[in-house]
Amino acid sequence: MPTNCRSLHRTLAPLALLAFHFAAMAAEICEPSRVHVFTVNEPIMDRDGQELALSVPSQMLIRPWFRWRNAFDVGKVAWVTAPFRERGISFGGGITLSAIYRGENGISEKTFNDYVTRDPRGRLYPAFGNPRSGYYHGSLANRKYLDYVLSFAKQQIDAGADNIFMDEVDGAYRIHEGFDAYGLAGFREWLVRRYVKGENWTETDARWTERFRIDLRDATICPDGTIRSFDYSKYLQKSGWAEQPDHKDNPLREEWGWPNDMRLGRSYCGERREQAWVYQCESLREHAKSKGRKVQIAANGINRHVDFQIQNLWTNVLTRREGRLDVSRSFVGLWRGALDRSRRLLGRDVPVMFFHDWGDGFPYWDQLNGGERKLWLRVYAPEIYASGAFFAFPVHGPFGCDARKDGSIDVIRTLAAFFDRHAALYRDTRWLSERQVAVDRPGVLCLAKYQPEAQRLLLHVGNRNCAKDALELAPAKDLKLSFPALGEIAKASVVSPESQEPAALTPATEAGRTVVVLPALASYALVCVEYRKLDPAPMAADVTIATVSAWVRPVQNVFEVGRQGVAGDELPNQFVQGQLHPHLRNNPTFVVDCPRPASFVVCIDRAADLGARIVILVDEQKVLEADLPGGGQGLASGAIRDYAIPLTAGQHRIRIDNPGRDWFSVDRFVLTGCGE
To answer: Distance between CA atoms of 581 and 578, rounded to whole angstroms?
Structure first.
């Protein structure tokens, strides 16, 4: 901060200084679409935090300010934003939309009881059902509560935050939450709007009883004898479902929905979530505009109405084997699935950023030692970028997370500098394949993309081979890559985080295919093949079909697969159910039209302890059947196993079934060579 600003900071009240602060420091803040590197820097409250953040080439800082319980006076630390504003770096704030503690920020017991949500018996429900958590969840249906939590984000905007990280925007509800007075009133309004106004039922219609078993004559459930006074909590109590509101026999469970339901118009929970989220986004944007500023909004999880996406990572990407980190598995399905969900929700492309999350613990920090963290970063950060997404490097965070302490800061700086320097090679790309480039040895992943304007093929090569009993990657030498000929090559080169500078390659032709040899591969390399005129058709893109994780019966089980993926808003469920949960069975069928011979691949990552069995039928003819053992016998370890079937050109119906005892989990489905 300049000297004149420091003296003013000492003599003026912090918030009174802000008008001068922003005028003096005004710079164009980097928009999400121009960010090359994200970093997590929580918190930044002093010079040390500033210097650490500035030591990594980042254009967006995630959560340097964050309010969880008691808010701090952001006006007193507004000065820390100055060097970032001078450089156009987006400085982050953040709040939780879910957690509320008794007495936090001086709220009265009366206010707390108004803000907090309830279970179906009207009781307080501790966060995640854990009385030791010490906190509860607020009511998403209560605008007074939303205004309360939003006030902290507005203060951060006033003090200099450019982006806001909105945590747990679905309230982090479990199935027992959301039954406060505001939520129950909202459900009544949902039923009236859907059936009285939408389907011309009357308020005393017999169909309330016939379809939903609502006894309008019961004064404890409908005090005035009409649906407008319906008390869903009393209904659940009287029906014996208060402890399990989603019981399969509850005829209103689909109308109420599930806490994290994002399907519009399908359930009250989905509507409540959407209305609360729209209100939050509009309130913050209007507030920033009133201050002559612009705010960039994102939420923890893929959401609508955002400027960029944030997707958390947990233990799902920390595979362990024989007591140490195992990096043999690829998570391309996870990375590309998030891109697909984002595109479906927003109808456009925005940056999708992954980060290591924390809650009651911090798996990335708690479960990995320093060497394992460095290994994870070297393998998976490049894979995320290669898949088309971004990674927020964990520079500083809670639970003692400090990249300087474990030595990972050097890896972070090297990778961040690489992606910043070569950002043009990760922009304006189109996906081709994760399977059509042949590599002459195991343990090496190659993802193919291309840039139409630059007439450039990009091969992202990732090494997963660890030295025996070590947390270092075993370098590969003279690695041979083979792929279809796509036209006359002008030049080829390779660049990597270890070298930073491009090195020339000499392509060759073998059996009609193009071959390049990498002299050395340490962790990751990007091969750039530039053509005089590139024709991607011989390497027709794969169609990757992501899955969604939801322990519910899928509402849709037939999916039409086009050249860009499945049509419509729904994606297939991750869980293909067996015989143990018949009420959840609605397993998927895919309708495909292959322009050429292709393969359909089911990528399975887990099976239940009781085991499962995969059956694949093409046009109702069984073409594959296999047992899927669980209980630690291979699939339970988390290693992906592919089950592929050949397809002839033309239209086909591919049905996936499971006559086994319990579920198996699909990471993704892949239709090879049938994409754009």
So the answer is: 7
